[in-house]
């Protein structure tokens, strides 16, 4: 090799290196979440901080697309119902846990049995209450059984994380998780950070980001500062008023919908005309713009999340008509009578402001409105009180499983957790929809239920909240409707 | 001295027991922890099952007997939120808070003595007026706001320091300054005023008349007398910092300390963790009080511990 070619080749090498800094630099990002996980066991707590991390370490039989559509995850295909209470899942072959354990029928059976074991005291039983067991058919086939026909089972299996059959019994499991996901656990420095790194043997598309560091910053102003100072790449729950200050941000329709649950038995609110007046006297668009900077959408006649199964596409937005509301209140002879709103402050974004604004709108109709902001414990006592329902109680409903069953059983089914009506027929229909496994019939049932609730104004649903994320300039990501922070979908450009 | 210590420790134990009882009763009166712990969508059956598992469905009297028995063995039960022994959580977070208090109060104490003394040398002079002005300013600053302003200036604009979190020395500077500010202001004002008093005393004039140099009079004689009220106030600052004044700073700077953990335990209605935190802090405060009495004795031999 003579001098000239050597010079030329080194010049070429230098040029390549200068042109592609990415090739030389590993892509590491830092994500700030609001609270530190209390444990990294993926099956025991109902904790957003834990999910933010374990959603990348663990996987589930069913998954969702960023738009919310239910698709196969660790299952090879959607499950088949072999009888009303048994669902059969075929598993994806050749999947391994990070520690080398095979993902197979044994792992699935163990995962199901572990989480439903009463002695395990899992808070996630709120999602898995109908599941009674799981049995292996062959190495890649599992049958999951339910206490009654359960059409929501596939969605439930999108929530249940699959843990390794033997390591999940290890004492270290809660501190050093091992899943099948695109990222594997590296370290947890309690109080400071959690680090994950890319799983080189991941069965799916290889993720592009090599290392993720999670930090725990509860105060939203501090999170934004970290983003602006270049320490962070992704922050969650960016406040609407700060969105424009972030280097980049994205908003996506979220899981939370706010609502006033109206009582059908109390003196003033038992009159459907009054309840209708309460619904049409609220200018939801103005609330979304003034309180949430436009990062919230007025609901379309129902509490059901727009991305959930069972959403009624035919219902309209509530029309804001104060004159009609006044007339309705007058007609019902309720002028000057008192409607009490029970609420809390600080649990949900701008809850107090929203409650007070709605109360002010209601006052315009000629009703007298009393707002009682209670301490959270006392608020829950009233929310779950079966006998004495407040005229209106504020709540923000979150639909993790994206199925209308949540809204129905939580806010509409008489004597269920937080419902305030005594419509026995509706209650029976909700129970029937709960066990109807024919998809189209079930959708039709929910269409009828949401329509009736709309016509009877059992609820005054308010706004579907949007999740706002802040990003650094270099980060690219389309946030998901299920609010999951999946690092495998993120990219760094530099 | 030995008898004194025993008596104080005995009194302290009574205080600790009293505080713990109040927490036991108060935490059970404020709402139903089971409802707060479980998701809103949980059914009544699930709530009942959970209450039974953590033992909160039993009569209050029975819970209380168990509680006292466990307390005697220093067993605070399992944190419902963290799913590990409550005492482990406390012992993991306490050192972080102690480090923050050490840095913040250390800064306040080290600066307060010279600043207050210098200001007192010429009451009404420009140094004195500046000190008083800055002191009042420091007292009236909301810590929350002050912390965020420091972050915006030093971490976001200048990028000299990290915005939040815990790590090397650089991570201590902003939270320590934020924590120190109001304490420093109070301590400086105290040193200044008691120094002015001392310097007007007859013994100072006598010492000067006997030919002692002024710096020596200030540093040795007047300062020693100023130290008694100073230690009292510094002790109070330490106790109030431990008893929760660090919460704001820990929140703003995402500092993984005990204050932040206590607030989270309250939000999550984690009774067992809260009991462990209050018990630990109460013991620390009793210990500090005894230590302060001993320090008084060392500073001023006239004080008799009885």
Please tell me about this protein's structure.
Chain A has 494 residues and is an alpha+beta fold. Chain A has helices at 3-19, 21-24, 48-57, 105-116, 125-128, 153-156, 220-228, 272-280, 284-292, 322-331, 351-363, 376-383, 405-412, 424-434, 439-456, and strands spanning 28-33, 62-64, 70-72, 80-83, 86-90, 131-138, 141-146, 183-189, 193-198, 211-216, 234-235, 248-262, 296-298, 338-343, 368-373, 392-398, 459-471, 475-476, 491-492. In chain A, strand 4 and strand 5 form a beta hairpin. In chain A, helix 13 runs antiparallel to helix 14. The longest helix of chain A is centred in the last third of the chain and has 18 residues, at 439-456. Chain B has 306 residues and is mainly α. Chain B has 13 helices and no strands. Chain B has helices at 2-29, 33-37, 44-54, 60-72, 86-121, 126-140, 143-157, 170-199, 202-209, 214-245, 247-252, 258-267, 271-299. In chain B, helix 5 (86-121) runs parallel beside helix 13 (271-299), helix 6 (126-140) crosses helix 8 (170-199) and helix 12 (258-267) packs antiparallel against helix 13 (271-299). The radius of gyration of chain B is 24 Å and the shape is flat. Chains A and B meet through helix 7, helix 12, strand 16 and helix 13 of A and helix 2, helix 3, helix 5, helix 7 and helix 12 of B.
């Amino acid at each position: 090799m003579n001098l000239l070619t050597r010079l030329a080749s080194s010049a070429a090498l230098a040029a390549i290196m200068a042109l592609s800094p990415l090739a030389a630099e590993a892509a590491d990002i830092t994500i700030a979440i609001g609270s530190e996980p209390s444990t990294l066991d993926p099956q025991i707590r109902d904790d957003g901080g834990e999910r933010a991390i374990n959603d990348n370490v663990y996987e589930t039989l069913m998954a969702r697309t960023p738009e919310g559509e239910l698709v196969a995850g660790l299952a090879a295909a959607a499950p088949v119902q072999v009888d009303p209470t048994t669902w059969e899942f075929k598993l994806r072959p050749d999947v391994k846990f990070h520690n080398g354990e095979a993902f197979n029928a044994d792992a699935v059976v163990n995962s199901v049995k572990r989480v439903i074991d009463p002695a395990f005291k899992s808070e996630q039983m709120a999602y898995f209450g109908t599941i009674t067991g799981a049995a292996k058919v062959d190495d890649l086939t599992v049958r999951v059984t339910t206490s009654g026909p359960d059409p929501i089972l596939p969605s439930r299996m999108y929530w249940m994380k699959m843990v390794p059959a033997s390591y999940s019994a290890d004492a270290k499991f809660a501190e050093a998780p091992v899943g099948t996901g695109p990222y594997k656990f590296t370290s947890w420095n309690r109080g400071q950070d959690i680090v994950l790194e890319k799983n080189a043997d991941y069965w799916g598309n290889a993720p592009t980001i090599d290392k993720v560091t999670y930090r725990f910053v509860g105060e939203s102003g501090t999170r934004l500062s970290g983003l602006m100072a270049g320490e962070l790449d992704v922050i969650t729950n960016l406040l609407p008023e700060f969105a424009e200050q972030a280097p980049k941000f994205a908003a996506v329709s979220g899981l939370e919908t706010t609502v006033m649950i109206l009582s059908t038995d109390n003196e003033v609110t038992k009159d459907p005309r009054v309840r209708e007046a309460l619904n049409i006297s609220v200018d939801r668009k103005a609330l979304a713009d003034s309180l949430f900077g436009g990062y919230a959408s007025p609901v379309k006649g129902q509490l059901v999340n727009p991305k959930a199964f069972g959403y009624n596409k035919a219902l309209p937005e509530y029309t804001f008509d104060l004159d009609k509301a006044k007339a309705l209140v007058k007609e019902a002879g309720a002028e000057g009578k008192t409607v009490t709103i029970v609420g809390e402050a600080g649990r949900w974004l701008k809850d107090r402001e929203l409650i007070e604004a709605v109360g002010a709108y209601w006052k315009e109709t000629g009703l007298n409105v009393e707002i009682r902001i209670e301490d959270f414990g006392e608020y829950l006592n009233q929310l779950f009180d079966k006998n004495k329902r407040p005229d209106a109680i504020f709540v923000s409903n979150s639909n993790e499983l994206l199925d209308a069953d949540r809204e129905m059983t939580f806010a509409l089914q008489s004597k269920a957790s937080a419902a305030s009506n005594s419509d026995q027929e509706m209650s029976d229909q909700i129970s029937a929809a709960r066990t109807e496994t024919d998809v189209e019939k079930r959708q039709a049932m929910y269409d009828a239920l949401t329509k009736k609730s709309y016509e009877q104004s059992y609820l005054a649903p308010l706004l579907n909240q949007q999740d706002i994320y802040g990003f650094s300039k270099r980060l690219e990501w389309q946030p998901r409707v299920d609010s999951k922070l999946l690092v495998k979908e993120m990219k760094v450009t530099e | 001295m030995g008898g004194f210590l025993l008596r104080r420790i005995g009194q302290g134990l009574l205080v600790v027991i009293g505080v713990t009882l109040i927490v036991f009763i108060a935490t059970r009166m404020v709402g139903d922890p089971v409802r707060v712990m479980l998701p809103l969508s949980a059914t009544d059956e699930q709530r009942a099952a959970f209450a039974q598992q953590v033992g909160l469905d039993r009569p209050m009297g029975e819970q209380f007997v168990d509680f006292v028995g466990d307390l005697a063995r220093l067993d605070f039960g399992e944190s419902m939120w963290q799913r590990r022994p409550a005492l482990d959580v406390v012992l993991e977070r306490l050192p972080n808070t102690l480090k923050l208090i050490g840095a913040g109060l250390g800064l306040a104490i080290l600066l307060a003595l010279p600043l207050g003394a210098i200001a007192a040398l010429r009451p009404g002079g420009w140094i004195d007026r500046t000190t008083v002005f800055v002191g009042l300013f420091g007292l009236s600053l909301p810590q929350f706001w002050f912390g965020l302003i420091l972050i915006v200036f030093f971490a976001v604009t200048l990028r000299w320091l990290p915005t939040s979190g815990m790590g090397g020395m650089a991570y201590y500077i902003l939270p320590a300054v934020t924590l120190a500010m109001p304490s420093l202001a109070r301590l400086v004002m105290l040193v200044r005023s008691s120094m002015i008093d001392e310097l007007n005393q007859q013994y100072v004039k006598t010492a000067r008349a006997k030919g002692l140099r002024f710096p020596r009079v200030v540093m040795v004689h007047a300062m020693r007398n100023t130290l008694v009220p100073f230690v009292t106030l510094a002790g109070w600052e330490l106790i109030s910092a431990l008893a929760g004044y660090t919460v704001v700073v820990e929140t703003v700077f995402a500092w993984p300390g005990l204050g932040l953990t206590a607030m989270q335990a309250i939000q999550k209605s984690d009774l067992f963790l809260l009991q462990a935190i209050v018990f630990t802090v109460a013991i620390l405060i009793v210990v500090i009080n005894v230590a302060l009495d001993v320090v008084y004795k060392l500073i001023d031999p006239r004080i008799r511990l009885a």
